[in-house]
Write a structure and sequence with these properties.
Radius of gyration: 21 Å
Helix content: 25-40%
Distance between the termini: 73 Å
Strand content: 35-45%
Structural class: alpha+beta
Number of strands: 7
Order of helices and strands: HEHHEEEEEEHH
């Protein structure tokens, strides 16, 4: 019985310690990837502001197996829905500006991830534009969520880089 109490106290102590450590990890993770594209701003906007054009460069939309349903939300905002595995994904363009878009990406039972695709001028180039993909992920206070946040950039960053490289290749040909 004493061994059981000792093991229980150690497990509770470890859980409390991990929870306290997780409180120091930020609950908002920002991932930013950028790339210079030598194309007119209008062509870049045309590709990023129209979800149907994402099939030209966004890896998820390029896949033949992704049956993407394009529609409008109740508010009239462009929306795309698709299944990956057994999870339903939803991408909604929440705001369109002259130099980019804001959109949200949600997945069944996951938090909504806010994203921005911005087009910025490059000082030393007249034809080049920097396209920046910024993602903001908000995490719950749970220790496992916070520790997952440490690896988010490593998990989603390569996908953003691939999408931007595909956009560059498509627009510069």
């Amino acid at each position: 019985m004493n061994n059981f109490k000792g093991i229980l106290i150690v497990l509770i102590g470890i859980f409390v310690f991990i929870t306290l450590i997780s409180l120091f990890i930020p609950s908002r993770i920002v991932t930013v990837k950028a790339l210079v594209i030598n194309a007119p701003e209008e062509k870049i906007i045309e590709q990023i502001a129209t979800l149907q054009n994402w099939k030209n460069w966004q890896p998820v939309f390029v896949q033949e197996s992704a049956a993407i349903n394009f529609k409008k939300t109740a508010e009239g905002k462009p929306c795309a829905e698709w299944l990956s595995g057994s999870h339903k994904n939803k991408l909604v363009i929440t705001e369109q500006a002259p130099h980019g878009i804001k959109f949200s990406l949600s997945r069944d039972n996951d938090a909504v991830v806010e994203n921005m695709l911005s087009i910025l001028p490059v000082a030393e180039s007249l034809s080049g534009r920097q396209v920046e993909w910024k993602s903001i992920t908000r995490l719950n206070w749970y220790p496992w969520e916070k520790f997952r946040g440490i690896f988010i950039e490593k998990m989603i960053g390569p996908g953003y880089e691939l999408a931007l490289n595909n956009l560059k290749t498509f627009l510069e040909k």
